[in-house]
Amino acid sequence: xxxxxxxxxxxxxxxxxxxxxxxxxxxxxxxxxxxxxxxxxxxxxxxxxxxxxxxxxxxxxxxxxxxxxxxxxxxxxxxxxxxxxxxxxxxxxxxxxxxxxxxxxxxxxxxxxxxxxxxxxxxxxxxxxxxxxxxxxxxxxxxxxxxxxxxxxxxxxxxxxxxxxxxxxxxxxxxxxxxxxxxxxxxxxxxxxxxxxxxxxxxxxxxxxxxxxxxxxxxxxxxxx
Length: 225
Fold this sequence. Notes:
It contains two helices and eight strands; from the N terminus they run H-E-E-E-E-H-E-E-E-E. The chain is of the alpha+beta class. It has a domain at 130-224: TolA/TonB C-terminal domain (2-Layer Sandwich), CATH 3.30.2420.
């Protein structure tokens, strides 16, 4: 059988091959152009929004309180009032009856009395006692409304050797803020009275002298708080 691609003329055979190859190239170019410029439908992109629901947290308004002043001091303890339970006995006294009493001897005005060998107390010695040693009391903590306003008058019984035999608080004064006036208190708490007496008993004096000898006598001093 005769092959159509083969001819006896070589020029015709070469021209045939060129036409075949040119056709293939043309087909390939058309296919490339077809693929390159073929219309493509754009897909609609649906955008979805993710909605996030957040829980609402309700916070009540906070009221800020401030302490304007310090709390008041605790109330003073109540002092129990003694209730007398003694039996009252009514006795009638005969005031018109005469009493047979011995006459008491008269004493000089500057001398007191003594018991046994106890030396007499001179009320107004020629040379009064003078302080040679002062012991400050251990002052307890006082409230602000009392600090710097308390004054105590203490009476000392000074022995003939200058030691303090006894001490007594005779007056407690509470001054006003400007110290122009004061009121007398019957007592004061906070351990102030005991601290004052303990310190007063440790004071030391130069003994008072009367008629050339040491004598017992009274003197006073003030303690300020």
